[in-house]
Amino acid sequence: MNAQPPVASPLLDHCPPGLPVEAYFDPGWYAREQSAIWARQWVLVGHQSAFGTDRMELRRVAGTEVIVLRDRDGALKAFHNTCRHRGAALCTETRNDFNGRLIRCPYHAWAYDTTGRLISTGYGTPTADFDKAVHGLFPVALTEWNGLVFLCLADDPPEFRPDMGLAALDNWPMEHLVIGHRAEKELACNWKIFWENYNECLHCPGIHPELIDLVPVYREGVMSEPERKGWQGGAAGPALKSGARSWTMNGAPCGPEFDGLSAEERAAGHNFVTIYPSCFVVAHVDYVRVVTVTALAPERTRLTAEWLFLPETLSAPGFDLDNVTDFAKRVIAQDGEACEMNQRGLHSPKFRQGRLMPQEFDIHRFHEWVIGALGAQA
Prior knowledge:
Residues 42-151 form the Rieske domain. It comes from Seohaeicola nanhaiensis. Its EC number is 1.14.13.-. Pfam families: Rieske, Ring_hydroxyl_A. The protein is α+β, with helices and mostly antiparallel strands. It has 8 helices and 16 strands. The strands form 5 sheets. It has a 5-stranded antiparallel beta sheet. A 3-stranded antiparallel beta sheet has the order 2-10-9, with no helix packed on it. The chain is globular, with a radius of gyration of 23 Å. The protein starts with 16 loop residues before the first strand and ends with a helix. The model has no long low-confidence stretch (mean pLDDT 94).
């Protein structure tokens, strides 16, 4: 058997500057991000189980309202939430006129089928110059990946490309998982502050006592073995502390471990997959957690966490949901406090720009992604 090549250290060989401070609270910068990033990238809008055949679901992407529905054949469709008559909203939190076949405008009763084609103008009587065929709903690009539903407002959406590749979760039974718990938290910080915190572990020793106990390498302020000082290559050992198998309060799996996982995946204890700008997925040996990031304002961000399980795990006698969810909730709360602390400090008139350490290579990559996505608008 051929020996595996040594894993190179990802550490930076210099200390690059961060983004200018205006990137974190300037309304103009935020507006550019909304149009150049959030309106042009794939944004997670929910798990497939949230979209039934008997109602429309209202979602917001980059401030734009979108309706998502499932047709009678089970296919998901998405459209801008605007009637082609005079622009009325087709769906609101209190009005949802959908019978599984026709989308009816609650204002003047124009009706569309589930392909978006205009079927009826209600009580209006079109003249010969009116062409129904060009007055259908405006479609929104939609893709599904491992039971997760993503939308993109762009007319020419980019390739859907998770950072770890489309096959990153192939060994997990994603299509069989259901939502067992959902939690939301609003943070007083810019959305990029959250992603920066996510992309480094220098803060872990001082912020996350429970997490560094579970994942020993985090005690050193790094995220993986190759980031350790003096790394010489070679195989990494188990990621979790001795006796632990999953991210739970007691380290024990919440139910049977998933079939089909490789030995490496089981030893890793967690498999992170990131899809900028809106979500990351953490796959464990017994459950999966999905965290959605939503930019609400220059200094407001909403986090939505969903825990996915096999149905038989949820229904098993003695299943302890709190043992699973309390661990991540504690970590999220700690990260939230750190992010808000970071945001407050940015308002010092003396602070203009940060400086990254070698261990913050993923933040540097994230900054390059943001600047690249903004392009000429930066």
